[in-house]
Amino acid sequence: MQNVEEYLKKNQDRFLKELIELLKIPSISADSAFSQDVLDTAEAVKNALQKAGCDKVEICETDGYPIVYAEKILDPKLPTVLVYGHYDVQPPDPVDLWNSPPFQPEIKKTDLHPEGAIYARGACDDKGQMYMHVKALEFMVNTHQLPCNVKFMIEGEEEVGSRNLSVFVANNKEKLTNDVILISDTGMIAKDVPSITTGLRGLSYVEVEVTGPNRDLHSGLYGGAVANPNNILAKMIASLHDEDNRITIPGFYDKVQELSEEERAQMAKAPFSLEKYKNALSINDVRGEAGFSTNERNSIRPTLDVNGMWGGYTGEGAKTVIPSKAYAKISMRLVPNQDWQEITEIFKRHFEAIAPEGVKVKVKPHHGGQGYVTPIDNTAYQAASKAYETTFGKVPIPQRSGGSIPIVSLFEKELKSKTILMGFGLDSDAIHSPNEHFGIWNYLKGIETIPYFYKYFTEMSMDLEN
Ligand code: BES
Ligand code: MN
Ligand code: MN
């Protein structure tokens, strides 16, 4: 690979400016008030892919937000890399907690990022990381170093469950044929500890509703005599974990793939400081399933968490009321072999079964997806590993992540291809939180590393053929 560093130096200001323009568009897929912005972002991504050198660029309509598809096919006999990413972002709420407006990107220097980091919603998840691939392509095309075919599929509904992408993939298998899928929508251990994500957790997301009396009641006149849905819901939720912080739903762990002692020992070698972890979150202790380390708890073990809970009076001051209804949004992170639909079903059965007399319970499934693990003894992983080794000077550590990108397991099922997760974000980037940011160093390192993946993957695949 020639001149990648030189090309970066020459063009980095423009690379930053272009990303900043993209980050200014509030492409919030969850909020229909922003639908025009989401559509405008698709258009901007399409134009960027065209400028970067793709031959065919299309906006593919779906029942929801469109998918941007692009390709550059050099020769059908060469390998094909399919890049996936998403142009939609999470809502910025709570907006008051941002130090600068979420859609007016600002570059700020921090101890961790002396080169500066871009602060904006979507900076890391996933506009910044997706755009690294666009710029890496631009570099390869402009310097005549693109070694293989490339396809891009950038969606606008990842943050709301990728429902329409599933349909698109199932209906366009021919168009999407590839030899490997490449995604940058995860993180790495640290700037000086490169890692490749080898697993993602699955997800089952549900909403529960507990109904007591037919209307809100005076908490003096009725308090103590009828079931209070808030009290009942809190008790039901509390019963979902035992003393060891294990989930009590019968059958929940039945299919969990347990790791061997050897695999666990391997995992434990990844650098990690519990003190730093606690300090970064201002907590005096960690908490989780007995018998597992923090790194295990947040990657290879399933979880159940309340994401939001409401009912009754939550406004300013006090109002004396027993609510008619109480609600909670619950996510279960799943590990390989757990089936998200089955887990949703057993959750529903259990939650309905534990409801006491005096209330009615409804469980409404939202969305979900399967977990994913990728082996490391294949050409694609080896090529990615070599790419990091070239640009970081260190062999990257394979690491399973706790986050979910449910579409990845669907890619494997429908397109029969493996996915390489080359994430360049850091845990401290605050994705989904106020003050999300992405280090300029990380952004440029991504653009520098990606072309090497193409190079090594093509070379290694062709060697296998000969
Ligand atoms: N990019 C994240 C997932 C992620 C982040 C995985 C960091 C690993 C490391 C993605 O955009 C995301 O937020 N996914 C959702 C699930 C989706 C169905 C809404 C998640 O994990 O909560
Ligand atoms: Mn993402
Ligand atoms: Mn996300």
From TrEMBL:
Pfam families: M20_dimer (PF07687), Peptidase_M20 (PF01546). It comes from the Bacteria. Keywords: Hydrolase, Metal-binding, Protease. SUPFAM superfamilies: Bacterial exopeptidase dimerisation domain, Zn-dependent exopeptidases. This is Dipeptidase. InterPro entries: Bact_exopeptidase_dim_dom, Cyt/Met_Dipeptidase, Peptidase_M20, Peptidase_M20_dimer. One of its GO terms (biological process) is proteolysis. Residues 199-358 form the Peptidase M20 dimerisation domain. It comes from Euzebyella marina. GO terms for molecular function: metal ion binding; peptidase activity.
